[in-house]
Amino acid sequence: MNGRHDPWIDRLSEFLDGDLSPREAQAVEEHLQACPSCRAVREDLEEVRRRARALPDREPARDLWPDVRERLGEDPLAEKIIPLKQGRPASTGRSARFSFSAPQAAAAAMVLLAGGWLAGTTLAPEQGSVTLSDRRPNAEFVGLDGNIPGFPGALSRELASLERRVLEGLDELEPTTRATLLRNLDVIDRAIRESLDALSREPGSDYLRGHLGGALERKRAYLERMSTLMEA
Amino acid sequence: MSTTSNLAVNPSPTDEARDVRLAVGGDARAFERIYRSTVPKVHSLARRLAGEALAEDLTQEVYLRAWSRLHTFRGEARFGTWLHRLAVNLILSRRETLRKHEAREVIGEGFLERMAGRVGLGGLSMDFEKAMATLPGRARDVFVLHDVEGYTHDEIAEMMGISAGTSKSQLHRARMLLRRVLDR
Amino acid sequence: MRILLSLGAAAALAAPVADAPRMGGGGPGGGPVVELAPDTVVDVGMGDELVIETWRGSLTVRVGEDDEVRMAGGAGVETPGLARSGSVLRLVGAERRGSGDLVLTVPRWLPVRIHSRSLDVEVDGMGGGVTVEVLEGDLRLASVTGSVEASTLDGEIEVTDADGDLRLTALDGDVTLRRATGQVTVQSSDGDLELEEVEGAEVSAVTVDGDVVFRGGVTPGGVLSLSTHDGDVSAWLPAELGAEVEVSTFDGSFQSDYRVQTRSFRAGSPLHFTVGDGSARIVLQSFDGDIRLLTW
Questions:
Q1: Which chains have 3+ CB pairs within 8 A of A?
Q2: Domain of B112, in residue numbers
Q3: Confidence (pTM)
């Protein structure tokens, strides 16, 4: 079955590169002798590696030396701003590349204070774990009123209460699982915070508003799932 | 360290060493010789790590940076190795900034309108180099540095600020994706 | 030796006993428990459902030819049992929570529901509906059809050769889906999503911190939606594509192999353009990362 081979496939690059221990390498070797499909993958990976090594280097399309000569003495990393040169097509391949505006940042006044949450509701359970007691629901992104800016207060309260329930249950979990779940929550919170931040710079962006809504919804779904599973 | 990440400066190591000494002393003609013999490698590296559009700017910056840092070259490693490492670090750290410059530039000039019509459908098969360019960012960087340039996972981890384990898994990921474009 | 027990018949005869011991006396809901020793088989009929809720360790579910549930492989320390309550067959351990490495064969049509804190799951060939929900563990599903729901908070999901309504959620881990058709929803928070040879009427892949790679097609009138917060989105589609495309990024770039024609473009709002007959809809989003729409 496909699935059965995959653990081996995952080791094949390391095997090719000689990055496995002798014992692991021998195990892979033995598997390869028995498994034609893994052998085929190994051959493909070898071919990919071979082609990468054989890629020819290419001169720039035009001679850059005159420009370099003229600018000798400039240190690009010492300067903050590189002067814009004349416009050139962004791509010479058949593929077009263009960029959206990067956020220009008069980083607006989002007050993202943990204290805001403290003023609003009771604290997370004191379970004696440093990670847990350090963590306060939504602390990353609620405003001074304890609410997520621009969203109904009910949503902030729902998220906070769900998160508290999950944090209470975390102590029963294995430390590694607990750490994973907390880190994940951080990932989601960071996305929410960055979306809020971006929205404060571009308040009219439908995309950002939708993106933030999606991130909040994801947090809610995540917390709900966690609390269901912790009852298993 | 494998030899692939060394830049083959002049045919003779003694010429290379002499040119480097002269360039440190301010001899631009010696530096031009260094430039000529190394630019295909540097430009290809920039193209693969940052894309065609930025490759020229980054290549120039590599040599400007190298010129201003020449006095720090101690001659312990080969000059080609030193320059190559400098190029990787500069490209990785500068490409995002340049991309944003590019963004403002092209949007400001109605770039999309100009692009429309210029881009057609390509053939069904993509050549290997183009396929590389379409890998997810981190996987592409690791693949270029490891399989094309010959750096070790530990070196890549240090240059990219990731763990060696991540470097290994991204390399495997890149190879598995590229495997699908092998036309055989 | 082969013991054959028809649990359906046994359940009808047995009087429900509350709070009975798990083994020998009765299962949850009072049904009888059959010890699933090797060579023991339990008959099942249409309408039945297999539920595995408390098992920890690893579980492999494979398809057998007969309408029976059979333990085909060694369960570590404990021998589990099956208890029937109405049409629900429930796996129970000798203690309240069983653990070990368990291999079951079941008929292809039997719906299976797996719910556990810590379990690696491998499911092969099921077609009656599969639900796997674990807190921690890797999930591998192959040759599955019908309704397939798989979620792990801490682990990876890999699904190959699937057709149906697929909902895959790995919150802290990568999701890989190869060769799939139907309705597909793939999610992660901290993980990469890789969809290879996937074609469906509605395909959606969303992660927060990770790359999204899609290679496949979208059916006419279908919707393909790929989104990440922090990572790249790469979609490889056939050169002969018909779709309305919408691309959004806050801080990233977009690269297209297709001809991009648009009347107006305002920084900060999505980029819209039409490819071919525009019959499908493609939405690509990355808050902070590059987006690529490529031909293969």
A1: B, C
A2: 1-120
A3: 0.60
